[in-house]
Amino acid sequence: MSRKRFAPSSRAAAVVTGAGSGIGRSLAYEIVRRGGSVICADIDKARAQETADLLNQLGSGVAIARSCDVGKEKQVAELADAAPDLLGRPVTLVINNAGVGAGGRIGEVSLKDWRWCVQVNLWGVIHGCHFFVPQLKELGYGGIINIASAAGFAAAPEMTTYNVTKSGVLSLTETLHAELCGTGVHVTAVCPTFVPTRIVEDSRLPESRKNFAGAAMSKWALTDADTVAAKALNAVDRNQLYVVPQPDGRLAWRAKRLLPALYARGVGEVYRGFVH
To answer: What is the pTM of this model?
Structure first.
């Protein structure tokens, strides 16, 4: 099969982190629906097993549950070593999806929460790329999808930790896309806005902000996790670097790039009016 015509999402041998719920579960489902097999990795083994059990009922692929804390180097290294044997063939698609929510004003967010968010959201993706990219390069084809966020470029106030980590994921993905150009390995960054998942429920936000974030998620979620998953896999097949799946995210994306100073000032003015 020529590199030009290779579609990483078709009959993939995949690893999806954070596959116990939300976008990760939807990604794993879509991979199996397309005839692939998937390791459903999650820090919560019970959630990962629930996803795998649901997918194995489809009968069109194989799903395997695996416990993995992506923030811990050793666990991701062990996952990368074990994955080809678990799948019965080389890994062809890696999706670094696992993420957590934390935020608040700079100077008020605890350094403990900073470290937790950075360890999972940024180091988790770094670990996934570090240990799986050499396998894909040696194979000569495949795909990597990193789930970033519109927060990585929108820079909304009081989302300090989350914004910083997702900005780092976006930069890492852009760099990797350039490094792997011409190797046959496709690289895609996915930048959704509001999608109904467990991230608010499992976050380390103050209760008042958690309640607000949960209400906003319910009110402003214009796209569900299944749609984001399908768009992400279609994009990696095309070797499309950016996926901004929702209209509000695309509006912020264009405004930030066309008028960056005006965008920042506008966000600040809106925030000042909101808090006062």
So the answer is: 0.89
